[in-house]
Amino acid sequence: MEEANVLLLTSSNSDADDIQLPNRGVKDLIRDFSSESKKLWYLAAPAVFTLVCQYSINAITQIFAGHIGTIQLAAISVQNSVIAGFAFGIMFGMGSALETLCGQAYGAKQLEMLGIYMQRSWIIVGTTALVLMFPYMFATSLLKLIGQDPEISKWAGTFAVWMIPQLFANAINFPIRKFLQAQSKVMVMAAIAGVTVVGHTLFSWLLMLKMGWGLPGAALALNASSWFMVLANLAYIFSGTCGQAWSGFSCKAFQNLWGFVRLSFASAVMICLEMWYYMALILFAGYLKNAEIAVDAISICSNICAWTFMVSLGLNVAVSIRVSNELGAGHPRTAKISMIVASFTSLLFGILLALVLLVCRSKFPLLFTNSKEVQKVVHELTPLLAVTVFINSLQPTLSGVAIGAGWQAYVAYVNIACYYLFGLPIGLILGFLFNMGVNGIWFGMLGGTSLQTAVLIAMVLRTNWNKEASLAGDRIKQWGGDSVAKAIDAS
């Protein structure tokens, strides 16, 4: 009951600086909401811009490919969604363990541990990338094995081999992003992403269309853009701008590796189950009649969904930082109000973006393809797409709360039940048994996402935030080692 009367937002390391509780009026609550909104948007705005730019790199490549031919668009879509999506989900998820550890350590002022955590993640994610090379190398055979169209499989497999350099760029870049985000250093990431997307657009146009290199030009542009971001971020970190958070390479990075692997694995499972669920849409679309048209249409809708998803993912990043920082600092009530403000803001943007899609349903398909058949299918899917955008507006924010609090293992079980035991079977039944095609598959995806969002809402409503703050302190001791534990106990 007392947690409901929230008030005064601040950010220091004592309980007195957490949100205070005496009864206050509506004006005070509005002021508190506004104060927390400013803190969230200071983090979310550059994060949204960064995410839009980073996602746009692949989406821009697909746009250019769509103007070369439908087989090229389908090949890049399948490679990005199935082969790269499989690897991306694993490595991004493993890197996401840093959101919990770095965020809570930063809140507890244990800055020296951030660089060590990042180095441990490089070791683990880099080793994982070596293993993930094999699906890239044998992509054609794997796609044919699961029944994909032979021509699409051939082109997608060839493109996958060319994209191996991007795999290793991501293995370095994902931990870097979490390291910088935990310190709220999001502006530099936004600047680097903005420069990259402009350069990538020009480079892709030059190689793919002007010079007529097609898929090889797409691969060269994507690899160059990915490595540019890695090198630019490393230059920023190594320049000394991160203070105590980066003091150079350390042998401590090799300590507690197995325990770090377990936490990274839990994060990977949580993220992968979400990402692979959407990847399955394009995979199963390849089994429908007119597979090329179906794959192209659903990949375009997935692209639009993902673009609009960036706003909520930006709030995901912001609320994850705020929740992890405040729990690490011992401020449970501030963490709770951050979750409430972020969720409300996400829903408002979801409504706005869904309305924009409905108004522009006849226009945006033209950006992706010249095929009238594909444009027609995308037009028919747009109402479902708009509903998906609205529901998906809240889900990433709640996932950000889960990551900030360290609930990855619990959410993984939720994702299995909602996505794979509920949503996916419904999509297959509607799409194939009831001959609803792409619409049926999308209905199933929407059902799974809706159920998962409802379960996450129930989880956060039942959360004991005081207990979560205590668990954050224990987690910092466990992963920081003896010296950190003594420092925390002494304080």
Task: Explain what you see.
With 491 residues, the chain is mainly alpha-helical. Helix content is 82%, strand content 0%. It is built from 19 helices and no strands. The longest helix has 41 residues, at 26-66. The two termini are 30 Å apart. Mean pLDDT is 81; it is low at 1-14 and 481-491.
Q: In short, what is this structure?
A:
The chain has 491 residues and is mostly helical. Helix content is 82%, strand content 0%.
Q: Which geometry do the CA atoms define?
A: globular
Radius of gyration: 22 Å
Order of helices and strands: HHHHHHHHHHHHHHHHHHH
Total count of helical runs of at least 4 residues? 19
Structural class: mainly alpha
Q: Calculate the terminal CA-CA distance, rounded to whole Å.
A: 30 Å
The helix content, as a percent range, equals over 70%
Strand content: under 5%
Biggest sheet statistics: none
> Which segments are poorly predicted (pLDDT under 50) over 5 or more consecutive residues?
1-14, 481-491
What is the number of strand segments? 0
Whole-number mean pLDDT: 81
